[in-house]
Specification:
Helix content is 30%, strand content 24%. It is built from two helices and nine strands. Strands 1-9-3-7 form a four-stranded antiparallel β-sheet, with no helix packed on it. A three-stranded antiparallel β-sheet has the order 2-8-4, with no helix packed on it. The model has no long low-confidence stretch (mean pLDDT 83).
Length: 152
């Protein structure tokens, strides 16, 4: 029994020593002193300037905040020509007749009707359409058409 007790105490001592050595190793591995050349401190003004620049660049990337065409434009598309928009482009057919072009087969959302316009179907006048991706979706004019569009 005494021998079993000694082995148990020895095993616990070895585990405690291993834990302490492991902790010491982790402390040394992380061990750069804050503010040293290997772990420099930064000033509050540096962080504020960095964050302000980051937010400003992020806002520029959002359409309507200086990062793209955010105003409606009017365009005449001659008969037989196609209009394809970039991702996020919107258009409204104001006059004329056009058929949807959709090489993907996924369609374009008709935001006015709450439906999906697929290839070959007529584009309805005065409906707002959204081009979800820059993959060739748009319309082909059957007659001369006038559209309003936003985006690229």
């Amino acid at each position: 029994m005494a021998k079993k007790w000694r082995l148990t105490v020895l095993a616990l001592a070895i585990m405690a020593a291993a834990a302490l050595l492991g902790y010491a190793g982790l402390a040394l591995a992380a061990g750069n002193d804050p503010g040293s050349s290997s772990d420099p401190l930064v000033s509050k003004s540096y962080v504020e300037n960095y964050v302000a620049q980051y937010v400003q660049n992020a806002l520029k990337a959002i359409p309507g905040n200086g990062g793209g065409n955010s105003q409606w434009q009017v365009k005449t598309v001659p008969a037989g020509q196609a209009f394809t928009g970039a991702a996020g482009a919107e258009f409204i057919l104001r006059s004329g007749q056009a058929l949807a072009v959709d090489p993907t087969g996924s369609g374009m959302p008709d935001l006015t009707a709450g439906s999906n316009l697929t290839a070959g179907r007529a584009v309805a006048a005065n409906h707002l359409y959204l081009v979800p991706r820059a993959d060739g979706r748009g319309f082909k004019a059957q007659t001369n058409v006038v559209i309003m569009y936003m985006g690229q």
